[in-house]
Design brief:
Rossmann fold, four-stranded parallel beta sheet, alpha/beta, single chain, 18 helices
């Protein structure tokens, strides 16, 4: 029977927690999972991405005051706000998948192997310029795909749904992409992108997978693994717990995959976190199978406004995602402000609305005795969270926090 804990005494700290009955730390890394994410393909992704101009490890920030508040030994926040100047971890996935797709298509056209360096250097610019890539996005993935298309020289069309902000639309257009707004929610825009690509002969570069579309999302996820590997390499000792926002699940699955392949049965406890208005992972763990949530999915945490789990991510997280939490939008607001206005010696961090669900999940669970016990949280726990975006919508960030990112960072100096 699925264990479920529901708390709603305080809107900002209310939560639903479900323990995934399918997962356990002693479950093996299966051949099917290894066909999705594996060491050889990760090595290729790492070598490629780390060779790009502007690559550097993003910081791993210690939040000792929040750790003390949560009554855990340590809390570290992987801050992706500076990644390649795009403001989020998505820069690792979408752009890499664009490069891999172009490499495959040029090889097919020429009938000979083509190196990644050939794509990066523009050696086949005439062929690449005739290719169009597209995707659906809540903002950050589309920006990464557009950046990759601009960098490597192909055409790009991005589909956004009804509630994506004008600020995020403009940010995508700044990388030379055509942006088309669709009716409906994120999942509707995914379908429209695929239908248009099929009709026009374009190539979808999506961070979610679905029947008939599996290969490109593997490249996206393989790029995401670099973020996890960096964080693990930067940690003095391995984390005991990872709290991570999920969305369709590609990023969380990449983190779980890197953790499982690195530490085996000693991997950390992995807790997923999502908005309560788009909690497809909570419904899926509750049902024991991928389960969609309906509606407009209109959450402040726009990057997590997804109603359907990725098929590839499910294959990994069903075994290696130990629990899931659903949290209200108020929690995101609280911890955006807390990170911008730290206590004690903690460093100020600029975190966007979709960056803090994992942190909010930890802080909510830490105040609840039953949740702590269910997740094995204690004074010796070492917690890692991933701050997956900075102020990717600067106007909204300023509206929520009360000042812009530059002012937040200046005050911390």
């Amino acid at each position: 029977m699925t264990k479920e804990i529901y708390r709603n005494a305080d809107a900002a700290r209310g939560f639903t927690l479900i323990i995934n009955p399918l997962a356990s730390k002693d479950k093996s890394w299966t051949p099917q999972q290894d066909s999705i994410l594996n060491d050889a393909n990760f090595a290729q992704a790492k070598a490629t991405i780390s060779s790009w101009h502007g690559y550097k490890m993003t910081p791993l920030v210690s939040l000792s005051e929040l750790a003390a508040e949560a009554d855990v030994a340590s809390l570290h926040y992987k801050d992706e706000g500076s990644r390649f100047g795009l403001g989020s971890f998505k820069a690792l996935g979408g752009a890499y998948a664009v490069a891999r797709l172009l490499q495959r298509e040029v090889e097919t056209c020429l009938g000979v192997p083509v190196s990644m360096q050939d794509i990066v250097s523009g050696a086949h610019a005439d062929l690449v310029s005739k290719i169009t890539v597209c995707c659906a996005t809540d903002g950050n993935h589309g920006r990464s795909v557009a950046w990759g298309a601009q960098t490597f020289g192909c055409r790009c069309v991005i589909f956004i749904h009804a509630t994506v902000s004008e600020g995020r639309k403009t940010a995508i257009e700044a990388y030379g992409a055509e942006v088309r707004r669709c009716d409906g929610n994120y999942d509707d825009s995914v379908r429209e992108a695929q239908e248009t690509a099929t009709r026009e002969g374009w190539f979808v570069v999506s961070d979610t997978s679905y029947p008939g579309y599996m290969e490109v999302p593997k490249d996206v996820m393989q790029g995401y693994e670099l973020m996890a590997a960096e964080a693990f390499d930067q940690s003095v000792v391995p984390p005991t717990h990872i709290f991570i926002q999920t969305g369709v699940g590609g990023m969380a699955a990449a983190v779980a995959a890197q953790a499982k392949r690195r530490w085996g049965n000693d991997r950390p406890t992995i807790v997923l976190a999502d908005p309560d208005l788009s909690a497809c992972w909570l419904e899926s763990f509750r049902a024991g199978k991928p389960t969609a949530v309906e509606g407009d999915l209109d959450t402040l945490m726009a990057g997590l406004a997804c109603g359907e789990v990725s098929s590839l991510a499910w294959e990994i997280l069903k075994d290696h995602g130990d629990a899931v939490m659903a949290l209200p939008d108020e929690a995101a607001i609280e911890f955006m402000k807390r990170l911008a206005n730290p206590k004690g010696d903690d460093t100020a961090v600029v975190a966007g609305e979709s960056a803090v669900a994992g942190l909010a999940g930890l802080m909510a669970a830490s105040t609840d005795k039953e949740a702590r016990e269910s997740l094995g949280l204690g004074p010796d726990s070492r917690v890692l969270v991933f701050g997956t975006e900075g102020d990717t919508d600067p106007e909204l960030y300023k509206q929520i926090v009360g000042r812009d990112a530059a002012a937040v960072l200046e005050k911390s100096k």
